[in-house]
Amino acid sequence: MPPNSPRLHYGWVVLGMGTLVVFGALGLARFGYSVVLPAMQQGLHLDNTQAGALATANLVGYLALSVLGGAFAARFGPRAVIAMGLLVAGIGMLLTALVNDFASAAACRALTGAGSGASNVPAMGLLAAWFAPRRRGLATGIGVSGSSLALIVVGPLVPRILRAFDASGWRISWMIFGGVTLLLAAAAAAILRNRPSVMGLSPVGAAPASPAQPAADTALPWASVYRSFLVWHIGLVYVAFGFSYIIYMTFFVKSLIADGGYTPAEAGNLFMTMGWFSLLCGLIWGTLSDIIGRKHALIIVYLIHATAFSLFALRPTPAGFTVSAVLFGLTAWSIPAIMAAACGDLLGPRLAPAGLGFVTLFFGIGQAIGPSVAGAVADTMHSLLPGMLLAGVVALLGAFGAALLPGGSFRRDSA
After folding, report:
1. CATH of 10-199+222-403, one of 3.40.50.2000, 1.20.1250.20, 3.40.980.10, 1.10.10.10
2. Which of 304, 269, 261, 263 has its CA nearest to residue 284?
3. FRET partner for 410 with CA separation of 20 to 30 A, picked from 65, 93, 177, 190?
4. Does pTM surpass 0.70?
5. How confident is the model at residue 227, as a pLDDT?
């Protein structure tokens, strides 16, 4: 596209679709579980350990496909992988609505997680191809806001479904989530494009130049991903986010009801409030990381998370819960946005999906462990609040790990 053309750059269309991919792959498939959990737990007669294990099953599935999804996207193109991942996630949610015991629920949650990993990681990595480094943090920040949109929607929606359908309300909720995700799979296949060069475009924000030509099909230097000490360091820092935030998100609504005396509708409304505050967090922190560097942005966000999680546990009052939700909302999806931008910085657009998939392996390990640990602690301590405090401590360790990263930024000089 000529630099002065008034026509909307197709990169913004890709970004809009990418945001909706995150809405389905994470917002509905993962965070919808938090609102559905109390009714689903009652309907299937699950204890807190089993409830945490269902979240772990989902995240194990996500972990298994996040690395492969990123690698497949780098090899075969993100578009097909994203669409197929959403298809699998949608089917997994529809099947979840039909389960009658813990084992089948765990299998369906794992299948849903696999589809989420296969679609979300390539979707975030795709933005590295469509946006130049100086716009990359902004783009990934907008992309992760798809999760915020889901919190805003499911927070008030699920309690209404539960009131309307009583004991079967949680099943109806999963059917709706699955149906919407299947529609998004079709839209992704129709709208997404693998890179701007296939349309004769340069990335959004790139220096004025002649339209890029399609890249030759050359061998990818995989070793630059898996042998980079800095990529491994980023991955280890990412573990802390996966472990801590998933405890908070999984048991947020359940803890408000069990430990705070909230009704499901009141808990859903606070969940929605957190979603509203998180709506621009990825954009704000992604853009800020473009300015102050990925390292310093990570340190600040981890410290805010540590405060939010600890406050939830140590001040179990309406005021404490609300301030905790607002603090987390202001920073909720910023770390994935920063990590996606950092992988683009370090590895370039073609290897960014593979790099993001690799560091997501570490993130996924933290996610897979967190809910089961917190659920077991809750059954032992007869409260979910100690698990929230554990999340705060681990987030503080994440800030320390980020502080040990070299330099203040990973931005490259070229797209």
Report:
1. 1.20.1250.20
2. 304
3. 65
4. yes
5. 66
